Amino acid sequence: MTFEVRPASVFEDVRAVVGPKSPEANVCWCLSYRIPSKLNNELRGPARGEYVGELCRMQPPPGVIAYDGDEPVGWAAVAPRSDTSFARSRTIPHVDDLPVWSLWCIRVRPGHRKQGVSHALIAGAVEFARSHGAPAIEAYPVDNGDARVDMTMAYAGIRKNFERAGFTHASDTTSVLAGHPRVVMRLDLR
After folding, report:
1. Tens-digit pLDDT string for the chain (190 aa)
2. Bridge partners of residue 106, in order along the sequence
3. What are phi and psi for residue 80, nearest 5 degrees?
4. Rounded distance, CA 131 to CA 84, Å?
5. Whole-angstrom distance, CA of residue 85 vs CA of residue 74
6. How far apart are CA 17 and CA 107, in angstroms?
7. Which residues form the N-acetyltransferase domain (predicted)?
8. 128-165 b/e with 16+ CB inside 10 Å = b?
């Protein structure tokens, strides 16, 4: 299958992939690493979606969406690391002072998994970062080997998918997700 990946500037499409079934729900909306923790804790229910709606109207938008025809089937959060909590992380180190972009969340809608959507999202996020002048892009996936990763915690991605996309291991971290260590994977875009 071929998926088209476009900037996440259409809020309804972002909502279809990362939004809750109930507008009152306090789901992540992929804000936990994007905004300061105090604001993340203050935004409740519909205010979370409204905040994401504002991000979708900004340049650059908050990430990319994968489409199967006109249907949004996947999401990847990508932004300059300096605009995320990874800029201040105590558990995920900076490899150097390069103003890298971070790719920290990949989500594929149920019914569309195991079809290559995550691979398309990684490639689309790389091109998005490159088109906005990023000198490199980093991801912080789990290093799970052959062990299964719980689907709800697979948002960070898995190391082998980033290796397939040309990323290389840049650093270990002290971060652990779903019982698996996370690593810094990097792709130079210069």
Report:
1. 789 999 999 999 999 999 998 888 888 999 999 999 999 999 999 999 999 999 999 999 999 999 999 999 999 999 999 999 999 999 999 999 999 999 999 999 999 999 999 999 999 999 999 999 999 999 999 999 888 888 777 899 999 999 999 999 999 999 999 899 999 999 999 9
2. 76
3. -55, 135
4. 19
5. 23
6. 7
7. 1-190
8. bbbeeebebbbbbbbbbeeeebeeeebbbbbbebbeeb
